Amino acid sequence: MSLKDLFKTNIFRGVFILIIFLCYAICGTLATYLFKYAINDLTKGNWDRFVFWLVIDFTVSILTVLSLPLGTFLFNKQVQECLHNVRSQIMRRYYNSGGYKVSEIQNELGNNLKILTDDYATPWIQIWTNLLSLIFAIGTLITLHWSLILFVAVAAIIVLTLPKIMTKKLSNSTAAAAKKNAQLLNTIENWFSGLSELRRYSASGRLDRALGQDSRKLAEANVYRKKVQGISISINGLGNAIGQIGSSLFSGLLFFKHIITLGDWFIAGSFASTIFNGLWEVINAMTQMRSTKKLRQEIADLTKPIPEKKPGTVVYGVECHNLKVQYQNGESISYPDFTINKGDKVLLSGDSGTGKSTLFKVLLGQLKPKTGEVYFTAQDGTKIPPQQARLGYIAQDATLFPDTIANNITMFNSKLVSKLKEAVKKVQLVPDLAKFPNQINTTVDLDQGNLSGGQRQKVVLARAEIHDEPFLLLDEATSAVDSKSTSEIIGNLLDTDKTLLMIAHNFSPELKDKFDYQINLKSSKKSGNQNDN
User: Fold this and answer.
1) Which helix (H) or strand (E) holds 518?
2) Which residue has the higher pLDDT, 190 or 479?
3) What is the DSSP letter of 516?
4) How far apart are CA 398 and CA 406, in angstroms?
């Protein structure tokens, strides 16, 4: 987010906002200046003229009071539309690049954008309105006596140098608070994803310690940030107070020497106050904005456009040679060589810990092997690396969205609606749909969990069926489905010309025999300090 981004969000409204705040500054300056004539007429005993100037002054003051909230309202509308654009750009980047945790996304779209709103966007109102008031106040002081503006200029230079003392600390404290907030969100995501298990084993104490530690760190970071801001404001306020008092004394000296009138002295003090208060507000606003420098750069990087992911190449087979994967703890696992040709139906088996799901991560391009070669084959035999392969994948934990069952199957592709009836039939979902009043148009409630685990898996299986990918990876895709339905679903899949690689446990011998062959993985993990050869 930048000032340019804010203005370009709606150029017409942006110009109108500048005009409104300009009117606010002019009316505010005029209201103060006209009071000079009221004071002078009062000292002369001219009551009628005194009342006349008060009425005029009151009218101008009303315009001042009305213009500020109108400009502020329109500016806040401009800011929110700009934030909407920024969120869209960030989400587009997350969508196209991947590799981000949910907690990180939440922190960027929630906490960090709020900081930018409060400490970068909103201060622009203070800067613009106070700068305009400063300019008009300085112009007015010049008309009273040249020495007044000279004195104020010297004092202003001193005031302007004070904020530099705390700029770096403010920026660092803001970045540190944002980082601690991200850590807390990450901890919440990691621990609350297993909240039911913690409840089952009465482990609330460990949850409290995990959250309490990061929560305290965030609280301490926020306290330190506010402390640094407070010190900065105090330093700026001290300079402001000295400038105002000095200006009042200097203009009072000019009055006693009969260089200016009593009315001039009164408005000179008011305009000097406007100048130094304005400087104080501008300095505080600029200090706030400087504190977001690192955060703005982070957001700017996230909003940079990146090429959209192109659809991968449809694949039909896969080959694996000399494959070895190494874990972060130094352990490694080796896989046997295998070739799966077009139309093969392969069951991937092995004890827990032999690396079945890890192999799927390699095939999906989510994990890079330490050694060896893995590639898919297109219909014409062309080698396709995992990162460029387009294939179907069904995980054990079905991913659904808060929309209708129909849209969860078609994945919002209206062209596939005509195939829904056949797809739900093949995955044995028809009896389940009959239990819902709206049947296939039932909205999936992720909070209340209106679909069972088996029903969720059937929806995802129907999704794979309707999108008809030639190569399909299935990781315990029917683990929550009853054995009779599982037999029917797998039987339907095996009767197609798709290439299947499936991880499954507890299949009956009869069902296993329906596959073309099995790849049985055996434990081959080695620690990092052993010779892998």
Assistant:
1) strand 517-521
2) 479
3) S
4) 15
For residues 136 and 199, what is the distance between their CA atoms, to the nearest angstrom?
Answer: 66
Q: What is the pLDDT of residues 491-504, one digit of tens each?
A: 888 888 888 898 88
> What number of other Cβ atoms are within 10 A of residue 149's Cβ?
21
CB 27 within 8 Å of CB 64: yes
d(CA 481, CA 508): 14
| Residues 6 or more apart in contact with residue 388 via CB below 8 angstroms | 312, 313
CATH of region 3-303: 1.20.1560.10
Q: Look up residue 258 and give its two tokens.
A: 């009969």
Q: Nearest-CA neighbor of 269 among 32, 79, 493, 40?
A: 32
Task: Give whole-number Cα distances, 306 to 94, 98, 101, 197, 387, in Å.
Answer: 10, 12, 19, 40, 17
Gap between the Cα atoms of 469 and 411, Å rounded? 14
- Which position has the higher pLDDT, 268 or 520? 520
112 vs 147, more confident: 112
Query: What is the structure's pLDDT at 531?
Result: 36
Q: Residue 446, exposed/middle/buried by CB under 10 A (0-12, 13-18, 19+)? A: exposed
| CA of residue 398 relative to chain centroid, distance | 25
Cβ proximity of 456 and 396 under 8 Å:
no
pLDDT at 234 over 80: no
d(CA 55, CA 533): 96
Asked whether 529 and 332 are in contact (CB, 8 A), the reply is: no
Q: What is the DSSP track for 310-369? A: PP-EE--EEEEEEEEEE-TTS-EEE---EEE-TT-EEEEEE-TTSSHHHHHHHHTTSS--
CA distance 366 to 386: 9
pLDDT tens for each residue of 212-230: 777 788 888 888 888 887 7
Angle (CA) 134 135 138, round 5°: 80
Q: What is the pLDDT of residue 529?
A: 41
Alpha carbon of residue 207 to chain centroid? 26
Q: Which residue has the tokens 């980047």?
A: 93
Q: Interior CA angle at 128 toward 134 and 137, to 5°?
A: 15
For residue 223, give both structure tokens. 């306290």
Lowest mean pLDDT across 46-50, 334-338, 344-348: 46-50
pTM: 0.64
Torsion of CA 381, 387, 391, 395, to 10 degrees: 140
CB-CB contact of 107 with 302 (8 Å): no
Q: In this structure, which amino acid lies at residue 398?
A: A
Cα separation, 365 vs 320, whole angstroms: 13
Give the residue extent of every domain in the chain: 3-303, 313-520
CATH architecture of 313-520: 3-Layer(aba) Sandwich (3.40)
Task: Give Cα separations from 433 to 393, 445, 448 (angstroms).
Answer: 23, 15, 17
